[in-house]
């Protein structure tokens, strides 16, 4: 099977290409300079040239706050881009995995959101990502899968975990929000799950899946776990409310996702977030210091 990964310069895109290479797959990774998914001609050219059996779309506009004033630009990337990919996949007989986000939900639940829960985005970013989901579902209903993830951190690129590692060395104490809950998720685990899912797409598997780590935490609890993993005193992290850090885009108070659909494919949910974090921390620290 030939794979094409868009957004291959980003955190999840790089991990997905690396995972496919590790498994000996035939893969081409294209970053945003090599493939602008907002341009239909560019997308058509990529699929004609590489002739993939399956496309994994990791390309996205992810600046949540900037999207509040750049919604049109975000929509071109997060909404029009996936539509272009889905149309091209339909024309070329390829299948598509499209990566989405917890921001499509309202963020006011108290238990994990199942895959079929009603969407109600409260931010421009969430609206544009939902537009992408709907475009993929409309253009390629039986040969696509939408994989929502959240609270990603990884070896490559910026993330909350990397920020905590950096700030620990420069501050005696840190104030971290304790009234937002979610599922810290290592991008390498998501990449592995995308690759696991690939052979099933269009062959009995379609629709929405959730790929986040098991368990829940607040940002404060995650920061404490990072400090503990670094071998420093987690009590240096202090809890504060969201009001201490006002942002243009409101953050979900609760964004944990349920993982029920993996059972249909005989796959378990991703592992607990603490287990993943402690495996990832040495790799992130090594990359940060290089």
Q: Could you provide a short overview of the structure?
A:
The chain is of the alpha/beta class. It contains 8 helices and 12 strands. Helices cover 38% and strands 16% of the residues.
What this model shows, in words?
It is a single chain. The chain has about 290 residues and is of the alpha/beta class. The chain has one domain: NAD(P)-binding Rossmann-like Domain (Rossmann fold, 3-Layer(aba) Sandwich), CATH 3.40.50. About 40% of the residues lie in helices and about 15% in strands. It is built from 8 helices and 12 strands. It has a 6-stranded parallel β-sheet, sandwiched between helices. A two-stranded parallel sheet has the order 6-9. It has a two-stranded parallel sheet with strand order 7-12. The model has no long low-confidence stretch (mean pLDDT about 95).
What is the percentage of strand-forming residues? Answer: 15-25%
Compressed to H and E, one letter per element, the order equals EHEHEHEHEEHEEEHEEHEH
Low-pLDDT runs of 5+ residues are none
CA-based gyration radius: 19 Å
Quick one: CATH superfamily? NAD(P)-binding Rossmann-like Domain
Identify the CATH class. Answer: Alpha Beta
As for the CATH topology, it is Rossmann fold
Q: Reading side by side through the largest sheet, how are the strands ordered?
A: 2-1-3-4-5-10
CATH architecture: 3-Layer(aba) Sandwich
Q: What best-fitting shape do the alpha-carbon axes yield? A: globular
Please identify the structural class as seen in this structure.
Answer: alpha/beta
Number of strands: 12
Average pLDDT across residues?
97
State the separation between the terminal residues, measured CA to CA. 35 Å
How much helicity do the residues have? 25-40%
Number of helices: 8
Largest sheet: 6 strands, parallel
The overall number of domains is 1
